[in-house]
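Internal ticket - ligand job 401, MU-OXO-diiron:
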Amino acid sequence: MDTNVLRISNTVQWIGVLDKAIRTFDIIMETQYGTTYNSYFINADKKAVVEVVKEQFFQVFEAKLRQVCNPKELAYIFINHTEPDHSGGLKKLLEIAPFATVVASNSAIMNLKEQLNIPFPYIIAQDGYITDLGNKKIATISAPNLHWPDSIYSYLQEDKILFSCDSFGAHFCHESMYNDQVGNYDAAFLYYFDVILKPFSKFFLKAIDKISSLPIDAICTGHGPLLTSNPMEIVKKTKKMCEEYLNNYPKKNRILIAYVSAYGFTKKIAEKLKEGVEKIPNVTVDICDIEKMDFETLGEKIALADAYLLGTPTINQNMLPQLYYAFALMTPLREKGKLAAAFGAYGWSGEAKQCLITNIDNLKLNRYCDSMFIKFAPSQAEVDNIIKFGENFAKAAIISK
Ligand code: FEO
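stdout (structure tokens):
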């Protein structure tokens, strides 16, 4: 069993765990380099832990924790984000740390109540809240939407250490852990940024702005190497990537037409919708058959679009699975209010229409007043209607922005 505990400063130790074997994260993200679930012990007058670990790794974590303290001595547990790869072990930790108070954002506490289903002592830490550990202080820095609304950073002032959870992290597993000892992990870092944080670049820049004037000797992330060597280099690099992403964001209104087609009828509707959309100036359209599209590409297209035309035939009284994937890649936080309409061809009763509409509504997209469904192949009169539909949808997309 891995028993490694690593020094970050005189006060802080890494007590996280390695997950070398994981190859898929959150079902949709490849993790070819494995990952780590980072947790930290702060040996102040009042002892604290920052982040826990995925529940299935709790035993390894507990053994490490017991190397550095008696868990009953823990006064605080900081939870910077409540995705269960960080908070999954919290319930078990509270069982062995009965005097610990959980410190987290308001939305994190709400999530934890639902995750733990037990009463527990907590403090809702707003931006600037100071947790007094006696000889040390931890400041809470609000950093929402990185990549959940609950995210915060914790900053150990005296040691100049920032605990950043998913921010600046990577799914990368190397036993050496320190960023100047693990070799080049750029590919893992960039992929992690692209998939998890890039769509939230606007929020990331706000968070970076808040920490840019702080003295920072180390950044303790939630995953991957410990940024003990030149941590601000990664911050600067991240800032540049966020700015590039936002600057490259086309200024025009972007409409994504994403569809799958069984016999070419839905494809024809998609192409005619495109014709209609293109009649409207200052609109860019991205049309794609998503049947074989990988998650990363589809996720990027979804994040970049301002409005969606989503099409599928009805097969087995259902929409096709690629559309379920597309909806799974949408986040209500980012996509809420974007205009969306459903289209497709059908042969019998056309249940896909309701499937699309239900998902559009569930994700709180702004459902367009109409949809475009055609029985089998569109006639010439129907083609004209489809083109008009596309044109009107594009006009509405501009107005709704
Ligand atoms: Fe590493 Fe968003 O959890």
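Auto-summary: The mean pLDDT is 94. Residues 380-400 form the longest helix (21 residues).
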